[in-house]
């Protein structure tokens, strides 16, 4: 069909960039596998920084951009973001467990959706790869969710 040909042509045209991205992601993955606790706490630290920056930006927006009732909602979210950032820095182990649990739930949901999508794509050649990807994503989410040590490996 025309839509499939357009997607296939676009993927073929940008193949070099997808290969480079894949290679870079493999390198980063190998570096992080060399020290899993470091990788975990790096993610927690990055999460804390992003929450703090988001909180400050929300407060700035509340004080300088918005007027009226929505101003207080933006300020409230700014304070909540700052509290989440502070919590990430003050309790990194708990934050790692919470983030890992959220990741596993997201993987399970994505795996279920991708698996259902694979069956909708059955008329298209290669739908089995989508099914395989969905089942693998689902299994990964379940494995992370049931493992007690998953935040630290």
From TrEMBL:
Top-level taxonomic group: Bacteria
GO cellular component terms attached to this protein's record: plasma membrane
A Pfam family that the UniProt record links to this protein: DUF308
Keywords assigned: Membrane, Transmembrane, Transmembrane helix
Transmembrane segments: 17-38, 44-65, 72-89, 95-113, 125-146
Protein name: HdeD family acid-resistance protein
Taxonomy of the source species: Bacteria, Pseudomonadati, Pseudomonadota, Gammaproteobacteria, Moraxellales
């Amino acid at each position: 069909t025309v839509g499939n040909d357009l997607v296939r042509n676009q993927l073929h045209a940008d193949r070099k960039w997808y290969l480079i991205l894949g290679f870079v992601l493999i390198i980063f993955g190998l570096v992080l596998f060399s020290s899993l606790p470091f990788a975990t706490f790096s993610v927690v630290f990055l999460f804390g920084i992003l929450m703090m920056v988001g909180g400050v930006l929300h407060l700035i927006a509340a004080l300088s951009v918005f007027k009226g009732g929505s101003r207080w909602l933006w300020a409230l979210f700014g304070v909540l973001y700052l509290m989440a950032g502070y919590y990430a820095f003050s309790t990194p182990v708990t934050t790692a467990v919470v983030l890992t649990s959220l990741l596993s739930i997201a993987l399970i949901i994505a795996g279920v959706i991708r698996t259902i999508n694979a069956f909708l794509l059955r008329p298209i050649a290669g739908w089995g790869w989508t099914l395989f990807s969905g089942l693998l994503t689902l299994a990964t989410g379940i494995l992370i969710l049931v493992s007690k040590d998953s935040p630290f490996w």
